[in-house]
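note to self: the first set is below, dont mix up w the second
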Amino acid sequence: MDYAIVEISGRQILVESGKFYDINRIDAGVGSKIDLNCVLLTNKNGIVEFGLPYINSKNIKAIILRQFSGVKLIIYRMKPKKKMRRKQGFRSKLTRILIE
């Protein structure tokens, strides 16, 4: 099993070639190619390579498939006996990338 652990938008994600992942919004157009150069670990045919903290010689390429909003979360606050009610919604901005 070939995989790598990369740092994208402040999170560490285990990625494999040919799969897509939803991450925090990246400011780039749909269809553009990005390079993920913060590679922490790679495993290729059982040979594991660690970085301290990053592997400088490795670079992972990805394609941005789409930009979208995540699932809507409802935040509801109330204080009993005080007639205080507040309802607020939140949708996180996400980017779907495909690892090459």
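second set (the one i keep forgetting abt)
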Amino acid sequence: MRRDGLRGELMAKKDVKPFLLRIDPTVLAAVQQWAEAELRSVNGQIEYILRQALAKRGVKLPEMKADEPPASDDNPA
């Protein structure tokens, strides 16, 4: 893990781009429940959903390594 120079937060090893998301509170609550059920952070769950949608459209992305957890802003170590 490395420290982010701007805020001093711990960041996951993979490079990620912060992205502000405006979302309906009802949709967010549903995603939070889904994430909890699958033992993911909300950020990880949103990335999972987006990757599924892209795959369904035929967009090929690099596979995530098994030892590389999705980046999460929800649970800093």
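remember for set 2: The domain at 17-60 is CATH 1.10.1220 (Arc Repressor Mutant).
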